[in-house]
Amino acid sequence: MKLTFRWYGKGDSIPLDYVRQIPNTYSVVTALYDVAVGEVWSRESIAELKAEVEKHGLKMEVIESVPVHEDIKLGLPTRDRFIQNYCENIRRLGEVGVKCICYNFMPIFDWTRTQLDKRHPDGSTSLVYYGEQLEGKNPLVDDMNLPGWDASYKREELQQLFALYKNVDSEKLWENLKYFLERIIPVAEESGINMAIHPDDPPWDIFGLPRIITNEKNLDRFLSLVDSKANGLTFCTGSLGADKNNDLVAMVDKYAKMGRIHFMHVRNIKVLEKGFEECAHDQTAGSLDILGIMQALYKNDFDGYLRPDHGRMIWGEEGKPGYGLYDRALGASYINGIWETLVRFDKK
Ligand code: DNO
Questions:
Q1: Are 234 and 262 a contacting pair, CB within 8 Å?
Q2: From the candidates 69, 103, 253, 265, which is the catalytic residue?
Q3: Nearest CA, atom 1, ligand 1
Q4: Can 120 be counted among the known catalytic residues?
Q5: What is the pLDDT of the chain when averaged over all its residues?
């Protein structure tokens, strides 16, 4: 396991020196945040970001994300130009030693929550998703400011996008994903990069938009679209774990054995009837079997990247929801402790 920590570049309020002080941190997980989706990242900006990271004794081996332009997901004729740009970004990142790129294939929206600062009895706050609050809501007419959504979309743009997605059901989305993978995976192979798709969060359709990276059957289908090691997974426990039917331990065991998990996002959640609450990483804090997941990684000699995922806001910290320092550092330490224990009491 190579422990990593997400860092949002120079605009991140958490200094790299602090990240470095988290025991066992090997690499940051970062990206360029000022490039429009679909455009080519300049070599200068990539080099500058890498130099900044390395100046602080860390590596830059994981990029999260190189976002996928909506035209690619929609399968529009304009997609080829954006796929070419995507390939160029893979090449450029490979040139500077990046080993893994995380991306997602969710239509329009990335992760979705109903509240970012739900206060819990111990005074901490965290991200939550209460499905009841979304029932009967329509983002095209209701005034909704759902956290996690790209706030830069104007209502009219959203309406246009939704209209375009009318022609894209889940089968069409699979087709468009295959078209994309068939073109980028050979480039990733040549560039020494493993592509790692992030599951849909939450793993079910949102407002009639299809979501397909959601469960074991679909992950199997995804991996077989292009059967190459470079076509792999970001296994996000919190995303996949929101669906009670996903047996995370069995899935981690299976995909780690196949060598197709390149990146782990580890966090715990409390699974509710119609949603979930994010909580501390610890086993006892939520519903997921974090120990079982870590053990499945260990048993399969997992040597990919892993990062603690969203943390709560604790100890009065203010910052980017899910991405404060304190609780993610606690998560990292918890993960280190589990791993060291597994190594010490080796029972493969
Ligand atoms: C949320 C993240 C996601 C993830 C993207 C990957 O905190 O896990 O936004 O970075 O889905 O493309």
A1: yes
A2: 265
A3: 111
A4: no
A5: 95
Band (318; pLDDT cuts 50, 70, 90) = very high
Beta bridge partners of 172: none
pTM for the structure as a whole:
0.96
Which strands sit side by side in the sheet containing 125-130, from one edge to the other?
115-119, 125-130, 275-278, 269-272
When mean pLDDT is compared across 116-130, 155-169, 172-186, 309-323, the lowest value belongs to 155-169
Write out pLDDT tens, residues 214-257.
Answer: 999 999 999 999 999 999 999 999 999 999 999 999 999 999 99
Atom of ligand 1 lying closest to residue 265 CA: 8
103 lines ligand 1 (CB under 6 A): yes
Atom 2 of ligand 1, nearest CA residue: 111
Asked if residue 111 has its Cβ within 6 Å of ligand 1, the reply is yes
Please report, as a single letter, which amino acid is at residue 63. Answer: I
- Phi then psi for 138, rounded to 5 degrees? -130, 115
- Give tens-digit pLDDT for 320-333: 999 999 999 999 99
Is 310 one of the catalytic residues? yes
Query: What is the rounded distance in angstroms from the CA atom of residue 115 to the CA atom of residue 241?
Result: 19
Backbone angles phi, psi at 5, to 5 degrees: -150, 130
Q: Is the CB of residue 1 less than 8 Å from the CB of residue 304?
A: yes
Using an 8 Å Cβ cutoff, are 70 and 153 in contact? no
Nearest ligand 1 atom to the CA of 322 is 7
Cα–Cα distance for residue pair 280/328, rounded to 1 Å: 9
